[in-house]
Write a structure and sequence with these properties.
homodimer; alpha+beta; transcription (chains A, B); DNA-binding (chains A, B); WH-like_DNA-bd_sf (chains A, B); 6-stranded antiparallel sheet; two-stranded antiparallel sheet; 10 strands
């Protein structure tokens, strides 16, 4: 009795060995069942699993092809900074540097996607890992969307941690970039000469309402943003 | 007759208006149906859609709560560089700078996750947008996994474009960072003084076999990696 897993491994070997290239048709179920000496339903299950993993592409009537991925998706999980630091086994530290209510001017209105003149809460915070500067946070919160932020001092809890307890969001935008540091970043993050910052900017909205804009700057020489995809085939290999 | 869409909008207003905070229980279906003057099945459909969107969390018996998202996922789509440039309306240019077969030494073996001494193809390529340097690519391809790469000159087609026609991959790793440029990056990317590079490193595997390692460096002052999430609620708002 031939298992679908061994058929899956066989087909995979054909792909690894370039018996069939990306975009190419592989034999139909009937022929594979004959070649491997198993039932068509066993072949079908193996093909379906490889298709679910994105290794094969199946089209009704058009047959099964080896997938040709022309774009690669990388999923970045951005945690609350406290969790990010603690999960790496380091001690989390937090300092509020600045807190001020402002009216949105032309620059900040554009950043947070809110009308000029509306009240914003501006915060600057430093997050540390084992006492070493890890992230400088510069944040604006819409006081129209989140009036209760006015009454929070943010001395002991960072704004990200507080925000997740307030409202969910329905839309977000992330921009990642490498930048020369400004004077405050150079000093607060204790950057070495010529050390750039890795910047994450994030905006969130709930329905049409802008909630917050944040710029997170990290020391370029130590910060890495990593996305690992588990091996789709681990089950086959074990 | 009250539509489930108007109920969805009502519940959303309750969340926006902070009637219920993240983590908090909202009233049960029966009470909501009475409050909104509609059937329980209409409420149920509205709640289910908001749960599917990640705005609510439903648990059998435990009721429905406003979701509290403590990590934010950002999906980065990394296209073939030619598509990335052409989709932005610019003309794509490509230059092969260097091509060499090497045996993996301790440094390159670590990068590509292959044993020392195994043959690698090393390539350096420049990708341009409207004639302006956009990306400097430094790539190693395993000639054990992809022996046919030895016969490709890569003069007119970049290695990424070629690779997608060769084998699929089942595992990938991406590392994003900000770095001071090395001398070649400074010259080839025509960087301004103090301009850092935005670096994407990618490794891919097919089953246990390492395929390629690539370092993609981009001019920091102009390059932005962007991830936009569509508004989950767009349907409600229209």
């Amino acid at each position: 009795m031939v298992s679908y897993k061994s058929i899956k491994a066989e087909i995979l070997n054909g792909i690894v060995g370039r018996q069939w290239a990306p975009g190419e048709l592989i034999p139909n179920e009937e022929d594979l069942a004959r070649d491997y000496g198993c039932s068509r339903s066993t072949v079908n299950r193996a093909l379906q699993e490889l298709a679910d993993l994105g290794i094969l592409e199946r089209r009704r009537k058009a047959g099964t092809r080896v997938a040709q991925r022309t774009s690669r998706g990388a999923l970045i999980q951005i945690q609350i900074v406290r969790s990010e630091i603690e999960q790496s086994g380091r001690r989390y530290g937090y300092v509020l540097l600045h807190r001020e209510v402002q009216a949105a001017d032309s620059a900040t209105a554009g950043l947070i996607d809110a009308p000029r003149g509306k009240p914003l809460l501006h915060l600057r915070c430093l997050h540390l890992a084992d006492g070493v500067p890890y992230q400088l946070e510069s944040r604006w919160i819409s006081l129209v969307a989140l009036p209760s932020a006015r009454d929070v001092d943010f001395e002991s809890v960072g704004p990200n941690e507080w925000l997740v307890t307030q409202v969910p969001y329905s839309r977000s935008e992330h921009i990642f970039s490498a930048a020369p540091p400004n004077a405050e970043e150079r000093e607060r993050l204790r950057l070495r000469p010529d050390e750039p910052v890795f910047v994450i900017e994030r905006r969130t909205w709930l329905a049409a309402q802008a909630l917050t804009y944040v710029r997170l700057a990290h020391p370029g020489l130590s910060y890495r943003m990593i996305s690992r995809e588990d091996d789709l085939l681990d089950e086959t290999e074990s």
